[in-house]
Amino acid sequence: MAHAAPVAVVTGATGFVASELVKQLLAKGYTVRGTVRSLQNKDKVQHLERLGQAMPGHLTLHEADLLKEGSFDSVVRGASYIFHTASPFFIESSNAQADLIDPALKGTANVLSSAAKAKDSVKRVILTSSVAAVHGEYAAPPKNGHLYTEEDWNETSTIDNQPYHRSKVLAEQEAWKTAKQHGLDLVTILPNFVLGPVLSSRADGTSVGFLKGVAEGTALQGTPLICDVRDVARAHVLAAEEPSASGRYIVSHRAPLTATALSKALQERFPQYAIPEVPEQQYDASEKIDNSKAEKELGLQLTPAVNTFIDGIVTLVQLEIAQPLPSGAPQEGTAAV
Ligand SMILES: NC(=O)c1ccc[n+]([C@@H]2O[C@H](COP(=O)([O-])OP(=O)(O)OC[C@H]3O[C@@H](n4cnc5c(N)ncnc54)[C@H](OP(=O)(O)O)[C@@H]3O)[C@@H](O)[C@H]2O)c1
Hints:
By secondary structure, this protein is of the alpha/beta class. The protein has 10 helices and 9 strands. NADP nicotinamide-adenine-dinucleotide phosphate binds at residues 12, 14-18, 37, 44, 66, 85-89, 103, 128, 130, 168, 191, 193-194, 205, 207.
């Protein structure tokens, strides 16, 4: 007798991370219910509709509102796995409470309470948290004095200073509290800055905007610690499928790629584009975070960071999100990627 495909709910299916997760779940034969803010917004949903057309009957899209109690009740009913990824991801806001904290915190409370009502079918809830819930601005040293781990919680960010970070702390703490209260099996995934291939042609996301800046050689500050969107999605799937998975899982390279190394790699791969030179030894490339728990317990292997940038830029150009300058064109300033 054929087994029915497991049903997975992905909240915020339109997002950068969630779209890749939907794609991977479909490829593994799951039946996916994706939640979106509005089905009418074709710019946001058309890439998902295309994924669904390739796997007829395996993807349905449902409207649900993070701020509305009970909004997720019907979509999670009968599901085996709930991947809660929907949360605002931007750094600047003039009204952090309404724009960042409320959707993150109330959204998590609502999704988890719908999960509790569907406890008979729900095997596990997987929450997309963030390294932002582990530390803020490296302001407090790691507990082990060496590298940040899953043991660390960001206790320094506030609504006025790093409100996005604060939203992720509050949301993850809410999830752990509600899961404990209702006996739900919860695992959280804590990605660092996520980059890599995009599926949607929208350009309003923070990750996509950053990668577009790298592709177009505009000046950027710092060398962020990154991870690959394909690895982040895979970590979510592994966290659902591995029976012994538990607790929090950081997904991140341990040290940043230097801007010098990145610009060299991009110049080699894209000789047709004007990729600015970045002088040697300008950046701190020391190890900062421990990703070994996901490696050991989930078997997660990270994509080399250079490939993440290259594969991401290829999709940004294909989807006409980025327009890199041709090589030989005059460049403004030096890019510090
Ligand atoms: N990208 C990163 O570097 C990174 C790193 C660590 C953790 N994360 C986490 O990963 C998750 C997905 O992030 P992403 O990079 O994929 O961001 P994204 O592309 O901006 O996607 C965010 C998703 O959340 C939905 N959303 C945002 N605000 C909402 C609101 N007020 N009401 C309802 N839905 C809302 C968005 O819906 P619309 O499509 O309708 O806007 C979208 O589906 C978030 O939880 C984020 O905190 C991301």
